[in-house]
Amino acid sequence: MMQNNPTTKKVVVGMSGGVDSSAAAIILKKNGWEVTGVFMENWDSFLNGEINFKEQCTSTKDWEDVRRIGKKLQIPVEKVEFIEEYKSRVFDHFLKDLSKGITPNPDVFCNKYIKFGSFIDYIEKKFPNYKIATGHYAKIQYDNNTPLLIIPKDKGKDQTYFLSNIFNSRLQNVIFPLENILKKDVRLIVSQVDKSLSEKKDSTGICFIGERNFEEFLQNYIPKHTGNIVDTDTNKIIGQHNGIEFYTIGQRKFLNLSGNEERYFVCKKNVSQNTLFVTKGSNESNMVATFCTVKNFNYISGSSEKKILNKTLLCKFRYNQSFKKIKITKVDNKLNLKVLDKTKFITPGQFAVIYDKDICLGGGVIESVKLMSGTTI
Fold it and tell me: Do 131 and 188 belong together in one domain?
């Protein structure tokens, strides 16, 4: 249940102009809270050097939607910019990791440094004694005074994976109004206030940047540099790529390798040689992982190293993936995860997020992966 201090019924809702955050504001308003909406603008195509683009960032339209919902709910709304913070703490980090040949997850860092970093700092300074709410699908429960990050009722929309890297203290003053509500009911709630907004598509793509043709977008920052695509089973060159930064482990689309009897999947990268390695779909030894090493693990929900080492727990290696059983040991300040369930395409740079049943215990960056073939990527 939502924590509600009867002496403080004021709340700031982080409003994106989407269905979920609008529903959060509607629910809180109906429950008697004094609601203020704050919209974050974190990306500017011109300031951030995005020259060759076809699809514009939707922030202008999103802000219009926030203002319209604010009028209908009779709540004040305002806009705040974290463009510099987003670029330096999220986007530059994203580009740096891509240059190393790994696949980062900017949404995780966006939550840590912007939504539950700069944004909360701003709210706590300007709106002291206010609660803070977002439209995330997640739940908070308390063990004494320790907030636990819990999987919500709508498991298909569960966003605890993306919240796994925030500092536990940031949850102390936060409300997740959608914790016990299904997505279909969220759209119904919004439709009663604004029918057109209730039908708005969910945002996809990079956090705050939106949908783009991924390769075209990145070419604003990473020039094309063609290299070989090599069949790892035969060691033969079978195609060309435009830059290994544009591809991720497990990818099978946009490889321009049609006409073969079997589909090919990206299974390895060699940054120094600018070579992309692929494997046939029938060769599971180049796809299935047995171990992975995780660095910079962030403990949340009162968890600690002592509570997870040498135990069999559950893990998600990417968002919307099913849980996989793992056993955890520690080596040189990093976690070694023995993968007990058959799992394909664990990807360096992505996050391994660990759970004890429905409690999120935290997450860290996948540094390396050992495949069934014996290869380490």
Answer: yes
